[in-house]
Amino acid sequence: MRVELRSLPWLSLGIFMLLVICAVFASWIAPHDPEHQSLLARLTAPVWESGGSWKYPLGTDGLGRDVASNICYGLRVSLLVGFISVAISIVLGATAGLIAGYRSGGWFDRIVMPLVDLQLSVPAVLIALAVMAMTGRGLLKLILVIGVVGWAQYARLMRASVLAERERDYVMAARLLGASEFRVLFRHLLPNALNALLVQASVDIPRAVELEASLSFLGLGVAVTTPSLGLRVAQGYQYLFGGSWWPSVIPGLALVLLVLAENLIGDWARDALDPQYRGRAVRVAALAKDA
Predict the structure, then answer these.
(1) Is 198 exposed, middle or buried (0-12, 13-18, 19+ CB in 10 A)?
(2) CATH number for position 270
(3) CA 275, CA 291: separation in Å to the nearest integer?
(4) Tens of pLDDT along 80-116?
């Protein structure tokens, strides 16, 4: 059992890299154009089912579109949304938290932190739903909305880190040596918070993927012509109880596998990068060994 637990992060990393390869090289791996429709081949079963064909190894949906091709391109959309939106959140939140923490008590801090509290008091999915309902569908809009919605937690995390570091000797020495505020902020204070930001990002990427899939499932995410796992699950749902389960279930399983792998990698990154969790893990391992 111990060997299995130790190998779990590497297994998750291997699955995640396999999904990334499918997404990056979807143009070569996907057997068909994801939007190509063939009504003569609609609801073709997967190859292991009766009536299945190797031409459509995972079957087709109600419009005759290849499920495997839609999964490859849908993974690309999910990963783009997850990584780019979290990067936007980090840039916005870290910059705001850096300035607010360095000038704690100033006018910028008094404006930003109430906004952070207000943002965190409202569920992100509700804000994203409202904005997407007003602005309409679109991949770029969705990435921007998810990125802006997630800035607050990075601002609070960065501000707390700056407050803990700004009075330390190395920061005071940099000031006495005539370092500019820009250099103090981005050369001395920001690097000390990178681990915490990376840990938070590893947790938020699968959340962003889930949010994109949820909004697309509800019809408020990407456009109907954009392959998305959440959108394909929604479009295949009507055939689920009629015997054709694969247009909805197989994309859903791919989404679950992606989010699960990202979550397990995030847990591993947290244990590796966060000293608090790393110390706790060492103590737990020592107690388990003594027991």
Answers:
(1) middle
(2) 1.10.3720.10
(3) 24
(4) 999 999 999 999 999 998 888 878 788 888 998 999 9
pLDDT value for 99: 87
pLDDT exceeds 50 at position 287:
no
From CA 87, how far away is CA 280, in angstroms rounded?
29
Instruction: Give how many domains the chain has, as a whole number.
Output: 1
Domain interval for residue 257: 2-290
Give the pLDDT of residue 202.
85
Integer Cα distance of 145 and 211 in angstroms:
11
The tens digit of pLDDT for each residue in 7-31 reads: 677 888 888 999 999 999 988 998 8
* Backbone phi, psi, residue 43, to 5°: 60, 35
Q: What is the pTM of this model?
A: 0.83
